[in-house]
Design a protein that fits this description.
heterodimer, A: mainly alpha, 68% helix, elongated, B: Alpha-Beta Plaits, four-stranded antiparallel β-sheet, two-stranded antiparallel ribbon, 2 helices, flat, transcription (chain A), Putative RNA polymerase sigma factor (chain A), DNA binding (chain A), WH-like_DNA-bd_sf (chain A), sigma factor activity (chain A)
Amino acid sequence: MDETLLRSLIPGVLGILVRRGADFAAAEDAVQDALVEALRVWPADPPRDPKGWLVTAAWRKFLDASRADAARRRREDLVDDQPAPGPVSGVDDTLRLYFLCAHPSLTPSSAVALTLRAVGGLTTRQIADAYLVPEATMAQRISRAKRTVGAVRFDQPGDVGTVLRVLYLVFNEGYSGDVDLAAEAIRLTRQLAAAVDHPEVAGLLALMLLHHARRDARTGADGSLVPLAEQDRGRWDTEMIGSGVAILQAALARDRLGEFQAQAAIAALHADARTVAETDWVQIVEWYDELAKLTDSPVVLLNRAVAVGEADGARAGLAELGRLDAALPRYAAVAAYLHERDGDLDTAARLYAEAAHKATTIAERDHLTRQAARLNNR
Amino acid sequence: MAKYLLLKHYRGAPSAVNDVPMEKWTPEEISAHIQYMNDFAARLEKTGEYVDGQALAPEGTWVRFDGEGRPPVTDGPFAETKDLIAGWMVLDVDSYERAVELAGELSAAPGAGGKPIHEWLELRPFLTATPNATDECHNGG
């Protein structure tokens, strides 16, 4: 059975239940129950109309739960009021669901958890595994999130930017557990792109595809980090890169530039170069300039300093770096690299060691420690 | 969405403000202290910020390899060891600020005289296993 197809039906089914009058939390529970039943029943007895099957099963679960509830009478009235069954367009409901799950009243971790469950159709256990927390913790996080958005009216329009930030968080969480969250984020962003016409949705989708296409090449067989310049470009997924570039170009043509499109443009320039030497650093610097106008993130300026160092030489890069706050994350790593390029190997070795000390991931720390060791043992 | 380790020390932390050894507290004060810790953990479970928590015995043994075919050497505990971990709690929170807020709350657990201990707790971020997908290092870092 195609579990991805099954999961892609979830937001539509959930939307129908809510529109029929079920409150969000109860509808979400009912859909999860129906999902579990589908996983059990379908392999032996596949339905002709999977979505119709799910709607019927979920609605029955909802009614069962409601009948057992104290508010029995009031909810049973809904049965009489329910709209006649028939074809429904799932598009609007799906979109509303995205907005609800990314509602600004939720903390980022709650918004991510709720999105993965309600829109992505993942089980609580799968989400807990992916985030390396106990299932009970994730269950509580999801129930709290459902309570928080319980009072939100389902028809309120939302802010696309908030939804994109949540999807980007999911993408960046990477790939621990048995669910590939990066692939899941791409799937959800594709779904969103089909439901809403917005250049930044396309920009984020392109960005994710361009990063994802390089994933296999980013780590060595032992899990160590391979910097972009040393990656085996033959292991990049050229089809995915092509698809990302095409989506990006269509978005850029609409002349409504946003942060994600600019980031994707930089990723595309890296992906386009067949060798490191072919990288168009001058154009990359120009895109960083655009990006700096769109965001006040100092990390953008840090990355820009690297690009300037490649385009105009290490000295120019160091000059740019000198204007930034040395407390920025990865500042020491960038300084180390530029000093090495400039020929000051002692300073570079010291800075690599300092950067390793400040690294936030194991792979990054090990990589920087090796860089320091390489210069100290020359 | 970052994990932090909250370390409670038997020894090695700077002195608490309300610095009275536990064996000099009243039994009710000890119960109140333990209750506070349990309530704290239970509340974090409900907020979805709890990952793990364990207490450690004060007595430990040092172990090291002593060469091929020989049993490992054991020694200690060393009375002079400066630092001694009493237990830990692992949090999964949205921000560093939230982790500090929670650590501060745990440090306010009641001690002697029913007053907060103000003990020092050590807060350490976890290194994550995989780099952020977008932190691609096209340079040294």
